[in-house]
Design a protein that fits this description.
Two copies of one chain form a homodimer.
Chain A (H helix, E strand, L loop, with lengths): L4 E5 L3 H13 L4 E6 L11 H6 L13 H8 L1 E5 L1 E7 L4 E6 L4 E5 L2 E4 L3 E3 L11 E3 L3 H14 L3 E5 L3 H12 L3 E5 L11 H13 L3 E3 L4 E5 L7 E5 L3 E5 L1 E4 L3 E3 L2 H5 L23 E3 L6 E3 L4 E3 L4 H15 L13 E5 L2 E7 L2 H7 L3 E9 L9 E9 L5 E8 L7 H9 L24 H15 L1
Parallel strand pairs in A: 1-2, 1-7, 2-3, 7-18, 9-16, 10-11, 10-16, 11-12
Antiparallel strand pairs in A: 4-5, 5-6, 8-17, 13-14, 14-15, 19-20, 21-22, 22-25, 23-24, 24-25
Helix pairs in contact in A: 1-8
Chain lengths: 453, 453
């Protein structure tokens, strides 16, 4: 009797987590991973630090290479294999290799981990000086380009966290950087107070941020390094280098070929066991939507840390287990120059759009005792005014902002009201915090507004 | 008609928090604070850093001085006033000034914030080279002694967090330090894994730690700087300076004079509104016991951050409000040389003593990405094996250990099971965390042991 075969499509965070978890639970399972590129199991969140040079070699971002998975974990990783269609009736995946060969691979269980792709193809994106920072291969190309061409002027389309981190990286390499942001504020999902802090730190490092400036085209003579980035109604900026970071959309074409249903967000719909609507097909990572615990509705929130968790759950269940992924609360942390930025839950605008009746407060406290060089810390809390339920938290500062968000994320997981947060027993010692934890100070300020209504 | 009078006894963390909160809510209330010493409203947690010299001047530890409270907040702070008895039938407090005068002060509402005192009086404690680090005045005396006498050899009795922090401070001033600990491990309330880390860091800085070494006497010729510290059955160490930090006991004599009931721990019993059993008498801070949310029983856990919260609640309620203090989960954070130490909830031993059937796991992960100089991070989780309920967490490492405890403290507040922690949406970015948050890794390890039973 042949053993069961688990087939995983996509070998980055979610895919390799699924394969590894399944192997851990079932040493007899045959596990095959199809990866269209040449790299598996790398930390995409580290790509900006590879571009800056802090990560000297691309291999440092690779947790384990394909050989490791083959030899140490008995996982048959097939690089350069692009899955092109799925025939669920026959439990068959059709793949093409990068040598143009065609292969049909049977599965008993299938995990889709096809990831995300740049959200839009801006005309001119195929030019040689245009890059995204979406995968290891493109980051390697970008760094080689930086080393070879020594571009002077960079334009970054999009001020999401990747755009901001790449801006930081390029400034550290001596480039002049302009960011073109389509909307009215930097970093979608934070409110005006944090956006102002981001603008301040960008300006202080000489980064120009143009808002309401959607990029429409990258133009210029064929083959020339110097291009013009056209934006808005009549804007134009010269650029030796263009980075496209206007967001990620889920890669779903393969799933759709199998009749796998997409959700409202346009990403693959999965239940909390990471099952799709098609029997024996699971999905995980940036190709899927996730349950947002605060809104109670699906959201598209592609992040490596979520992909790892979902992949683990998908792999466990594909191997016959019973793991559950309850969803996210929308936590995001980034660093732009010296500024730590963190958010969780909903922004004020998102809360309003979701149908809550939100109220908010923003305070500035300090990260730790002054005599330990404590820095100002901005805390914003968002809550639902009728119920007092916490909806979100945003933090910014040069010290102690990033991981402080975890306390607020936990409050969201626990569905706490602001009133439940007034006396939380959080860690205090002068080298690490002021005696009144800043998030608690904000909760007390919030309570004044809640009590008044 | 005369206005109501709130009388507060004790002017440090809990007392001044109570007075300030009451003033905020009621501008007409007459508020009197009796403080036996000369200082109010200082951060006692900063005393080790005053001894080391990081805090240059004692005034930096004082949040506001008595004049500020008198002028800016209309609070009648009376320094050098020691309350000696309470007559609740007459709503009267008898005080003595440090000039030997006697005063009788009427109250309508009374807040007891008499704090804590050194746990034991070791024979010889009255010698001129013996100090505790319990209040600002004693820390000022100690620093003056260090400057004047330039002692070379220090012995610290007790390896609680204050003993450890003072050891760090004295080493930074060039002293040879020996710590004598009565029990089998350093820092009561942490398990062997953390205790081993503490021992390692002490040793690496030349601090000798003797365990099972209760101090019995400080002996030597009268008036001499050099004394002998006697410990255990026949131990003796020469010392130019002795620090007593064997713990804190609640100051309850005054409360008892009023018929205020003590709890099982020996500290003043209060409800969640900070009311004692005696009408119109509240209590807060180090003289009280607190509800431990994990055990569901009262505990004595004197900490400045708790005192501030309790004081605020007592002040609000004394002024006619309805605030509640739900209790603590036992969070404690400290730094000993380069080692950050954090704990929350119960240790394995405490969990066993409380009647749980605890199980634990300890893992070593990393504080953040290696290319951001991530450091090893020790995580220990303790849970109740039959129910899977989280009972405690301990962290140690040179980076990112201290405030990471907040996520675990929140899990305790929310009464989470380990199973609820596997996929928490905690902050991730390479400058701040590894892609799998160390606490989650520990939860997954714990889950293996829970699933097996």
């Amino acid at each position: 009797m042949r053993s069961e075969r688990l087939l995983v499509i996509g070998g980055v965070a979610a895919g390799m987590s699924a394969a590894s978890r399944a192997r851990r639970l079932d040493s007899n399972l045959e596990i095959v991973v199809l990866e269209k590129g040449r790299d598996v199991s790398y930390g995409a969140c580290g790509l900006p630090y590879f571009i800056s040079g802090r990560v000297a070699d691309a291999s440092e971002l690779v947790v384990h290479n394909a050989d490791y998975f083959r030899k140490e974990r008995g996982i048959d990783v097939r690089l350069g294999h692009k899955a092109v269609s799925i025939e669920p009736g026959f439990k068959l995946v059709v793949a093409e290799t990068d040598q143009g060969q065609r292969a049909e691979i049977h599965y008993d269980k299938l995990v889709l981990a096809t990831g995300g792709a740049p959200a839009e193809d801006i005309p001119g994106f195929e030019r040689g000086n245009v890059f995204n920072c979406n995968d290891l291969a493109s980051a390697v190309c970008l760094r080689a380009f930086l080393d070879r061409e020594k571009p002077r002027r960079a334009v970054i389309a999009g001020s999401g966290y990747i755009g901001l981190e790449v801006a930081d990286a390029l400034v550290s390499r001596g480039l002049e950087v302009t960011i073109l942001e389509r909307s009215e504020t930097a970093l979608d999902g934070v409110d005006s107070e944090l956006a102002a802090e981001i603008e301040r730190v960008l300006a202080s490092h000489g980064v120009a941020l143009k808002k309401n400036a959607p990029v429409s085209q990258i133009a210029g003579p064929a083959g020339a390094l110097a291009t013009s980035v056209l934006y808005g109604l009549a804007g134009s900026i010269p650029a030796d280098l263009v980075i496209l970071s206007t967001g990620i959309r889920p890669r779903t074409a393969l799933a759709e070929s199998a009749g796998v249903a997409l959700g409202r967000t346009g990403a693959v719909a999965v239940d909390d066991a990471m099952r799709t609507n098609v029997h024996s097909i699971f999905a995980a990572g940036d190709c899927t939507e996730v349950q947002h615990i605060v809104t109670g509705a699906p959201a598209y929130f592609p992040l490596g840390t979520t992909a790892n968790k979902q992949g683990r759950v998908a792999g466990e269940n594909a191997a016959g287990g019973h793991a559950r992924f309850p969803g996210i609360v929308g936590t995001l942390v980034t660093k732009v120059f010296e500024l730590e930025i963190a958010r969780t839950g909903l922004s004020l605008a998102q809360a309003r759009d979701t149908g809550f009746s939100p109220q908010s407060v923003a305070i500035t406290s300090i990260s730790k005792a002054k005599y330990f060089d404590g820095k100002p810390l901005l805390v914003k809390l968002i809550w639902d005014q009728p119920t007092g339920l916490l909806l979100g938290c945003q933090l910014a500062g040069e010290d102690g902002a990033a991981k402080r968000i975890d306390a607020a994320a936990m409050a969201l997981h626990a569905r706490m009201r602001v009133a439940d947060m007034l006396n939380l027993d959080l860690g205090y010692a002068p080298p690490f915090a002021p005696v009144w934890e800043p998030i608690l100070i904000a909760a007390h300020e919030a309570m004044k507004l809640i009590a008044r209504s």
